[in-house]
Amino acid sequence: MMKKIAFLVAALMIGFLTFSSFNENPAGYKIGDEAADFSLKNVDGKMVSLSQFKDAKGFIVIFTCNTCPYAVASEDRIIALDKEFKTKGYPVIAINPNNPNVQPADTFEKMKEKVKEKRFTFPYLYDDSHSVYATFGAKKTPHVYLLQKENGKNVVKYIGAIDDNVRDGAAVKQRFLANAINELLQGKEVTLKETKAIGCGVKV
């Protein structure tokens, strides 16, 4: 009898842990999925949602942070992407998913300092509930999701890396994200829809 009870308890614990793990680490979006809107605080204290960008054709959503060397190495490229594509209808929306209790240099105050230092031209939002990154399925910083507006929906068109050399912008040979946006602007289907995001794991 005791063995049966112990077996049932063990089975329930495994089931609980599996269920918890599943809920804490959802698969996230896939190509063709509709991305849900969100409302996150920008460094200026204002709440930002995708729905506020009425004239946008889509969005370059990038999960990034203050601290990861890969994210830092990508900052100038992210600024350049916003400059290149914002006026064409694809603004950058940067989101910091990290928990400052785990990574102290990723606080909201430090985000403000980063924006001032680098002169970001795009929103830098704080995912303080750590829910938006999980909904998207972001695993790294940086991790890119290219969205396109279609019939009132924000449809995922590309997921992965900015380009083929996250460590050195001067050595880039293939601009994965820029190529995908240009194809959308030409009314074409994105040829390379997914690449592997290389960076630091999200700290939650």
Per DSSP, what share of the residues sits in E-state strands of 2 or more residues?
Answer: 15-25%
- Mean pLDDT equals 90
Give me the CATH fold name. Answer: Glutaredoxin
Name of the CATH architecture = 3-Layer(aba) Sandwich
Reported for the largest beta sheet, the result is: 8 strands, mixed
Number of helices: 5
What is the topology, as strand order, of the major beta sheet? Answer: 1-9-8-4-5-6-2-3
- How many structural units, i.e. domains? 1
CATH superfamily: Glutaredoxin
Overall geometric form:
globular
Query: Count the strands?
Result: 10
Point out poorly predicted stretches. Answer: 1-25
String of helices and strands: HEEEEHEHEHEEEHE
The value of Rg in angstroms is 19 Å
Oligomer: single chain
Task: Describe the protein's architecture and organization.
With 204 residues, this protein is an alpha+beta fold. It has one domain: Glutaredoxin, CATH 3.40.30.10. Helices cover 32% and strands 20% of the residues. The protein has helices spanning 2-24, 69-85, 108-118, 132-136, 176-185, and strands at residues 34-35, 40-42, 47-48, 58-63, 92-96, 124-126, 140-141, 143-150, 153-160, 200-201. The strands form 2 sheets. It has an 8-stranded mixed β-sheet, with helices on one face. It has a two-stranded antiparallel sheet with strand order 7-10. Strand 4, helix 2 (69-85) and strand 5 (92-96) form a beta-alpha-beta unit. It is globular. The termini are far apart. Residues 1-25 have low confidence and may be disordered.
